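Researcher: If convenient, please comment on what follows.
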Amino acid sequence: MTVINVSEADFEREVIERSTTLPVVVDFWAEWCGPCRQLGPLLERAAAERDGKVVLAKLDTDANPGLAGAFQIRGIPAVKAFSNGRVVDEFVGAQGGEAVERFFDALVPSEADLLVASGGEDDLRRALQLDPGRPDAAVRLARMLIAQGDGDEALEILAPVIGSFQADGLAARVRLQKDGQLADAFAALDRGERERALEQLLAALPSADGRREDIRRVIVGELQELGPDDALARDVRRRLAAALF
């Protein structure tokens, strides 16, 4: 079932609860609304083409004024996409077919998304064939290759990636390992002893000379993985700034 009619009586079940398992797009419309009649078939076709991966729920705003008010519907057609019980995207007014397709595409995982979620080496390679330079796939595959001792291929995988501190950090690690540098720190990282590894990397900075920038990249990559609110990341970020500047 890709298209359903919903009302105030079943909105919680059919839209909010259902959206915890797959996206639900709600079309707020009314019989008298000409643009709604133009948009409706485009929404229905887009939902049908996605073969049950998205549900389209149609809600008559005249018959359900409480919901129209609750979602602050000021003009129709109004379209809201729900995922995990909340609105994640929306638009107001009639849209063309291409715009509707893009709206639905953003809600459904791509083949590459599913391959990355699977996480196997072959799947990650296929994801990168579909989406070259995809950071999450490249970083995960590079970590596998580094663990297998294949730093050269890891560098090839990471080379097309732009704007990822983790990718930059892994590439820097491979370069440092080629020179036989910081083996104890990297062994600690591989054992999951991140705090010990970061301590050793920070301690290496004052005498690093030409390796200084690559050590910084390794540290920053680990900080990105930890996230901005992590206590260890905050402490290391402060100490890194002091060591560099």
Observations:
- DSSP finds 13 helices and five strands in the chain.
- The beta strands are 3-5, 24-29, 55-60, 78-83, 86-92.
- The first strand starts at residue 3 and ends at 5.
